Amino acid sequence: MTMIAVEGKLRRLVLLEKWNLAALGLILVGVCLRLMLLKQHWPWTDSDEGVFGLMARHIAYQGERPTFMYGSFYMGPLQAYLGAAFFHLFGSSLLALRLGLVMLFALFLVALYLLTRTLYTPGLSLLTLALLSLGSPYMLTYQLRSYGGYLEILLCGTLALLIATWLALSTSTSPTLSWRRLLLRLGGYLAWGIVVGLGLWSDMLILPLMGLSGLLIVLFCWRELVLVLPVFCMLGGLALGMWPLLAYNLHAPPGLDTLSAVAVQQQGPVPLHYTPALVWQQIKATIQLSLPTISGNPFCPVSEVPVLRDPTSAPTLACRLIHLGWGTGYLLLFLAALGLAGWDLWRLGRRSRLEGKADQQADLVRASARLLLLITAAITLALFIHSLAPLKWPSLHGRYLIIFWVALPAILWPLWQGTRATWSFLPRLRQPGRALCLALLLLLLLFYGLGTAQAFGETSTAQLYYQQDMAFVHRLEELGVSHFYSDYWTCYKVAFLSQERLTCGVVNQQLQPGYIRYWPYYWAAHADRHAAYVLPRGDYEAALQALMAQKSRRYHLTLYGDYFIVQPAG
Q1: Helix/strand/coil for 76
Q2: In angstroms, rounded to a whole number, what is the distance separating the alpha carbons of residues 534 and 480?
Q3: What pLDDT does 268 receive?
């Protein structure tokens, strides 16, 4: 009997090793695909990423230690610090800035694999990795363009729930603990606090996942928490992880604290006046554009900010139907997963009360973690609908629903179970039901693969944009420009691509200070009597005419592409 048990254990270990090797292979495929895209300068850069590049340069070469992204009070600069580290290794470049993002995403995939294998099955964990190693151009963009916050939310949020699940599963019912086990568990509480703190420093979008992973600990580890020491470790880790955030807010002026900044991001500078028509518009925009965008719909992309140069489709009836169908189907699948998770937890809880078996504790923990993960996504969705995001740019702002990537295995669970279910209550639908669930999973995998192919199809455009941007930088240098005024989307991109040989002050269409993230650049341009104006055609033409009509000073005008380059004559 002992020999049979040992052989069974060995077989399980061998099978687990095979699952782990398959997972490692999928993660390596995802990393290689992203490195290939980055080598081709995809995705093309913009001024938001330029700000992170400039921060990385200042950290690496000037000894700066910023607490937040320049010009904000709530977004941590971890990606800039990683970029600075890679700058020391490979020099300052767009590719080096983005290598840290690939590292963060690979770590997220590892954490999500471990979480999915713990809560569900190894098979579903591999399917999740296969999907996320691919992705639509929109998904890949937010994995490869340095915007700050999003990848940190994915990694820290997944680790927080993984650690909370481990703590809940390994809770001992014994009144005594060995010193080794006690130290290990205290380390788990400390680690949970640290990763949550880092996530909060990076972006407050992690709050729902922080709260509900903490709730899982409270529900199943309360006997340890009453001893106070684990609570001290959690709070200490939290303070350690978010120390830069705490240190700033302890001395922040009123209105410039993190909570005020987050409130403005949520509701805008003027609070919304909610009406049934407004709420319906928010819900409709979320279903039609935000959910399809964040969940990987590769068809009919929507670009709401033309200056970003992202591909966009015509608002045809076919595209509207695709968006609506994808968003509605995804929402229904999410609701089905939520209902199934709730039913599983109720059923397990009822059976545990009736039978009183202690070995059902692990099943209760897993069922609770599944439900809490989906509730996290539901809270995120509700907050998103309640915000300004779906009213302004619902497709672009779909990134605020990025926690749905962490919840992907939970959302896919009904389909995964459907491929294996016996369908005993409807035997005639057994085979059609299983075939339908399998077809939907294969279609999703196909669509994600199609999205990845689309991203590779855009690499020639990305290279063209990069060459145009660098040619623009060289032209400004040939004209003797060192400081200039321009719009936001030109300013910081040019400053980073030029390695700060060109610096700029952001101005609005009236040539007054605009959306300025880094004031030293503006003051340098203001102090330079020979600072040029680099103005995009269209919105700035009225300002250009007023500038050229000045009698107190003469200017020399150069046309280059879509820009007017205006330099003082003498």
Answers
A1: coil
A2: 13
A3: 64
Residue 1: per-residue pLDDT: 46
Do 394 and 384 touch, CB atoms closer than 8 A? no
**Strand intervals (E) in 489-546:** 503-506, 532-536
d(C-alpha 242, C-alpha 18), whole Å: 38
Give the model's pLDDT for residue 469.
96
Say what the pLDDT of residue 259 is.
83
The sign of the dihedral angle between the CA atoms of 536, 540, 541, 544 is negative
Q: Is the dihedral of CA 341, 337, 416, 406 positive or negative?
A: negative
Report the DSSP pairing between strands 483-486 and 563-568: unpaired
Respond yes or no on whether the N-terminal peptide bond of residue 306 is cis (omega within 30° of 0): no
pLDDT of 553 reads 81
Place of tokens 């409130």: 263
Which of the 8 DSSP states describes residue 42? P
CB within 8 Å of 86: residues ≥ 6 apart: 96, 97, 99, 100
Place of tokens 């595209």: 319
Confidence at residue 117, expressed as pLDDT on a 0 to 100 scale: 95
Q: Measured between alpha carbons, how far is residue 177 from residues 182, 232, 233, 260 in Å?
A: 6, 18, 17, 44
Helix/strand/coil percent split, the chain, to 5: 70, 5, 25
Are 147 and 55 in contact by the 8 Å Cβ rule? The answer is no
Residues of the chain falling short of pLDDT 70: 1-15, 172-177, 266-271, 352-359, 421-430, 570
Other CB atoms closer than 10 Å to residue 2's CB: what's the count?
6
Q: Which helix (H) or strand (E) holds 220?
A: helix 207-225
pLDDT of residue 175: 47
Q: Angle at CA 293, nearest 5°, toward 195 and 536?
A: 100
Number of C-beta neighbours around residue 382 at 10 A? 11
- Select from 48, 90, 72, 8 the least CA-distant residue to 399: 48
> In a 3-state reduction of DSSP, which class is residue 565?
strand
Angstrom distances, CA of residue 295 to CA of 197, 266, 400, 412: 27, 21, 12, 12
Distance CA(400)–CA(440), nearest Å, equals: 26
pLDDT at residue number 290: 96
> Helix 179-202 vs helix 150-169: angle between axes, to the nearest 10 degrees?
160
- Contact (CB, 8 A) for 49 and 147: yes
pLDDT of residue 260: 81
Nearest to 122 by CA among 216, 26, 36, 217: 26
